[in-house]
Amino acid sequence: MARKQDSWEDIHSDTDVLTSIQTEEGLKLLLVRADILHFSGDVIVNTVPRTLQLGGGPLSRVLLKKAGPNLQKELKAKTQKAEEKVGSIFVTSGYDLDYRAVIHVVAPGWDEGAGSSWQIMAKIIRKCLKTVEEQSFASITFPMIATGNLRFPKAIFAELILSEVCSFSSSAQLNSLQEVHFLVHPSDDESCQAFLDEFTKWLKRNPNKDRCLMVGDNQGIFGTVSNPAVSTYEMKIGAITFRVAIGDITKEKVDVIVNSTTKTFNLKLAARPHRDFIITQGGYLKCKIIIHVLGENNVRDTTSTILEECERRKHSSVCLPAIGTGEIPDHWTDMNQQLFCVIPLHRGQSEYTAVKDKFSQISHSFKIRKIERIQNRFLWQSYQVKKKQMDIKNGHTNNEKLLFHGTDAASVPQINQHGFNRSFAGKNAACYGRGTYFAVDASYSANDKYSIPDSKGRKRIYVVRVLTGDYTHGQTGMLTPPSKNSDNTKELLSVRLTIHQALAVNSITKVPVPRSPSSSGEESH
């Protein structure tokens, strides 16, 4: 049944190949966005129920309509030779499909991880790959077979299938199989993102791989990899060199570095304000200027504005982060492209316990009602850039602390969306200058003066990552930190418990717990 496979460029020149990786054994894994009717290959995988009746799901319905009734007839004939149980696979011809064969799998439904659905699906994937290799086919196409009626979460399916394919590549002796295609419908953005995330993780685990094919990639467009250890890729268009790299933007030696920030960003040291961006000097970074832009703005417009400004100032090089797409902590919940979200934590989770333990000093007086994680992509990105700048400026990395901040219920939505800024100054205290105050001791923030109880007696306290840096004594009325050196106004000290930017990690709602009759009898806060 083997045939010589035409080149990828010949068959799929109009197909949207999002990305591709190649295993050490030479097996190509391609993420493809295309309609199933506009794609072709040696083998395609389809899901069927135990009755082997086609047409129950959207995938088998499309395949049956295109292939014709003989596809169902041959599949039914297979029941005389094999048992139709979950985990079984059946191979038929492709008939009028643009595939030479179809592998029909009886797949399990997702059981929330409580049963064996993961293991069964993994075994099915291995069976499919083994069958393709045994029958000397060169390629196999996996649509999103488990994410529809079978309800496998798309991120979990992407992780599972990529893991199994890579494992098969490393353990099997490949003779015929050359390509594995992960086929995503053009409208399925969630699956695309799930697979792109998994491909990125694979590249991080395999940093010495010398190529990652992207959309429109072909030999001659991309130059040689200049630094495979950090995954650097270059291409030239005319006199302009484009370089994509995984690395630390604060270590780049260029004329301009771009920082993605938020609407609350306010810097009086800026060279001059602009409608869409702020420009500051490079300071301790290896650049002439920093252009600060709003990460939530349209990326295309923002990039055009940046390039126009660089051209106007006659700068020859600029380094941009992945604006609006920066890395977020691995433990964060999928935000589904939201700007920010609030994630409830639950008893038994390690993060819940870690935060709860930080309130051990006041646990006798208060009961924790709920703990939430505040996820704000733009605040996180801005905070990370500021942290790296402070680490470089101060010559050490001991610039961050986990501190507490008590507030009232009305301030919570504003803080969650925009972070802490000087609009809160003087609201509760300003003894050491005008700024946002944070406490080392949870009991301090639990004071009614700071975490003002609502009508039900509930309080709101944040556990916050704070950049304290080096510090000095504050004074009433102080608006900005004093200089470290009176001769150098660029070197500013931080005032203890004040920051330029902060990320609210956890919001905690607390309710008073009445003291026992044996206590002092005083009313608890």
Automatic annotation (TrEMBL):
Residues 16-203 form the Macro domain. The lineage of its organism: Eukaryota, Metazoa, Chordata, Craniata, Vertebrata. It is found in: Nucleus. InterPro entries: Macro_dom, Macro_dom-like, Mono-ARTD/PARP, Poly(ADP-ribose)pol_cat_dom. It comes from Sus scrofa. Its EC number is 2.4.2.-. GO terms for cellular component: nucleus. Coiled coil: none annotated. Keywords: Glycosyltransferase, NAD, Nucleotidyltransferase, Nucleus, Transferase. Residues 328-525 form the PARP catalytic domain. The keyword Transcription does not apply. SMART domains: A1pp. GO terms for molecular function: NAD+ poly-ADP-ribosyltransferase activity; nucleotidyltransferase activity. This is Poly [ADP-ribose] polymerase. Signal peptide: none annotated. Belongs to the ARTD/PARP family. It holds the Pfam family PARP.
